[in-house]
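Session log. Operator J.P. requested a structure for one protein chain; no other inputs attached. Running the standard single-chain path with C-alpha cell output.
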Amino acid sequence: MIYGFNAAEVFQIAIEIEENGRRFYEKAAAGLDHPEVKKVLSELGAEEIKHKQKFTALKSELPASSTQPTVWDPAGEIDQYLKMMADLHVFRKSDDVTARLAQAKTAESALTLAIQFEKDSIVFFAEMQALAESESAKTQIGQLVKEEQSHIRKLSLQLRKLTRE
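Structure written below.
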C-alpha cells in the first residue's frame, strides 16, 4: 500500500469518520427547528450507520496480511502521519463534531457544514478505493462514494430551497 499504511488502519479511520458523521447529523437535527432540514439530517444520520456497518464488514473480511505493517517503523511515524492525514477530515475527531455544531446555529450553516463533511468523506474514501487490494473492496467502496455524492445532492437541494424561502 502507498505510504506504508495497512488496510485495517485505513478502514478503522473510515469507521470513525462515519460514526462522527452519524453523531453530527443526529445532534444537528436535534438542535434545529426547521422540520424539513431536521428530516433530511435524520435520514442522513441513519445512512451513516449503514456506511459504518459496511466499512466494519469490509475490515473484517481483510486477509491477515492486510493488518500487518507494510514497512519497518519502530518510532510509529507512519501511524502518526496516517492520523494527521485523516485529521484533515472535518469530522475525524469526535471533539470536532461538538465544536463545529456550536458554530452551526442555523439550518443553512448546518447544511453547509454537512456538505463539507460529505466532500471530505468522498476525497478520503476515493483514496481508500484506489488503495484497496481486492476488486470487491474497490467496488463496495465505490458504491459508498456514490452514496456520499447522493448525500451532497440532497443537502445542496435542501440548502437551495432554504436560500429561496
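Operator note: Helices lie at 7-30, 35-60, 77-87, 94-103, 107-131, 135-164.
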